[in-house]
Design goal:
It is built from seven helices and 13 strands. It is an alpha/beta fold. It has one domain: 3-Layer(aba) Sandwich (Rossmann fold), CATH 3.40.50.880. Strand 2 and strand 3 form a beta hairpin.
C-alpha cells in the first residue's frame, strides 16, 4: 500500500496563536479612601500604554522590596509614574516646609525596581515623580520646592486642565526624547513643584525649560535604555501634536511591541 506524507498543521490558526505579551510594570500609589486604602493610578497611563501596544501590570507600594527582582524578571520594561514627593531623607536633606505627602513604602519599592531594571537592562520610561525617584535612586538630589528655591517666572505647578500645554522646553538634538517627539522645541503641560537638581550617576540632561529646570534625562549607559521626562505625556495622547504619543511609541519599540 502506498503511503503519502501528511503535512502537520496546528489546530489553532496563526491569527489566534498566542504571542509573547509586551507587559510592563507600572508603579502606583496607595492612598486612604474613607475607612480603607486603595491602590491609585491615573487611568491615562493605562490608556497611553495600551495605545502603544503594551500591557500594564500595576505595581503598588509593597511591604518588602524583595519582590522587585521577581517583578522585573516577569516584565519587559518599567514605567515610573507621577504622585507624591520623594522623601528628602533619601538624598540626605532636611524636609522643606512645602514638601507634600511622602510615601516611604513607595519610595523603597520604586528604588528597588530601578535597581533591578538597571541590573537586567530593562527599558525604563519615567514620568514626573518618576524622573525624580529615578534620579534620587541613582544618587542625585531634588529641588524640593521650585517656587521658593529657584529663580523663575514660569509656573511649573499650574492649576490648569491636565491636557493644557503650559511652557516650552528645549531638547538636546539627537537625544532619545528628540527622536521620540520628532522635534527639539515642544510645549508641554506642567504639574510639579519639584525637579531634578544634582543629576544622578549614569544620567545626563537632555531637556530643559527656559528657566533651566531639568525636564528630561536619559542614561549614559548604552546597555540601559532610559527616557525620563518631567511633564505628563500620558495626559496629552489625544493632542493633535504627535509629540507625547511619540514617547510611548519609542518605549514600546525599544521593548519590541
Amino acid at each position: 500500500m502506498s503511503t503519502y506524507p501528511v503535512e502537520e498543521r496546528s489546530l489553532v490558526s496563526s491569527a489566534r496563536k498566542p504571542v509573547p505579551a509586551c507587559t510592563v510594570a507600572v508603579t502606583a500609589s496607595i492612598r486612604p479612601d474613607g475607612d480603607t486604602s486603595r491602590v491609585r493610578l491615573t487611568a491615562a497611563y493605562v490608556t497611553a500604554l495600551e495605545g502603544a501596544g503594551l500591557i500594564p501590570l500595576i505595581v503598588p507600594p509593597l511591604s518588602s522590596s524583595s519582590a522587585a527582582a521577581a517583578i522585573l524578571e516577569s516584565v519587559s520594561g518599567l514605567v515610573l509614574t507621577g504622585g507624591e514627593d520623594v522623601d528628602p531623607a533619601r538624598y540626605g536633606e532636611k524636609r522643606h516646609e512645602k514638601v507634600r505627602s511622602v510615601n516611604a513604602a513607595r519610595d523603597a519599592t520604586e528604588a528597588a525596581l530601578i535597581e533591578e531594571a538597571k541590573a537586567r537592562g530593562k527599558p525604563v520610561l519615567a514620568i514626573c515623580r518618576g524622573i525624580q525617584i529615578l534620579n534620587v535612586a541613582l544618587g542625585g538630589t531634588l529641588v524640593q520646592d521650585i517656587s521658593s528655591q529657584w529663580d523663575t517666572k514660569i509656573a511649573h505647578d499650574e492649576d490648569l486642565p491636565r491636557d493644557s500645554r503650559s511652557h516650552e522646553i528645549s531638547i538636546e538634538p539627537g537625544s532619545l526624547i528628540a527622536r521620540a517627539v520628532g522635534a527639539e522645541h515642544v510645549t508641554v503641560n506642567s504639574f510639579h513643584h519639584q525637579s531634578v537638581k544634582r543629576v544622578g550617576d549614569g544620567m545626563r540632561v537632555t531637556a530643559r525649560a527656559p528657566d533651566g529646570i531639568i525636564e528630561g534625562l536619559e542614561s549614559t549607559d548604552d546597555g540601559w535604555w532610559v527616557m525620563a521626562v518631567q511633564w505628563h505625556p500620558e495626559e496629552m495622547t489625544d493632542s493633535p501634536e504627535p509629540w507625547d504619543r511619540g514617547l510611548f511609541k519609542a518605549f514600546a519599540q525599544q521593548i519590541g511591541a
